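To illustrate the input format used throughout this study, we show a single complete record. The first block contains the structure-token representation of the backbone; no residue identities are included at this stage. The design step must infer an amino acid for every position from geometry alone.
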């Protein structure tokens, strides 16, 4: 196995899956792509593993009142969503340049 194949295998093993419940009560699995901090708030960037379009989902992390698992909510504004997406895309471009 080449060194590149070993690195790719390690990256595949490090994939983190997040299961969220949609409004209808169905569990939906997402692959966690990144954590983003923006204006003092934390966000997650997720993608459905079978997504053919490569469309990502961005959710804001809200600390649960009971101190248990965090809650995830949609960003309040289009500007907030766009700003977090731009940070994610910039990081992705930097990672791709680093790999070359």
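Output of the design step:
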């Amino acid at each position: 196995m080449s060194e590149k194949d070993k690195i790719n295998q390690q990256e595949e093993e490090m994939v983190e899956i997040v299961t969220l419940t949609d409004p209808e009560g169905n569990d939906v699995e997402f692959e966690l792509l990144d954590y983003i901090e923006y204006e003092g708030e934390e966000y997650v960037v997720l993608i459905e593993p079978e997504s053919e379009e490569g469309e990502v989902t961005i959710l804001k992390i809200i600390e649960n009142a009971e101190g248990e698992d965090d809650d995830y909510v949609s960003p309040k504004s289009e500007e907030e969503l766009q700003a977090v997406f731009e940070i994610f895309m910039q990081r992705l471009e930097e990672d791709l340049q680093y790999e070359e």
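Structural context for interpreting the output: The CA atoms of residues 93 and 99 lie 10 Å apart. The radius of gyration is 15 Å.
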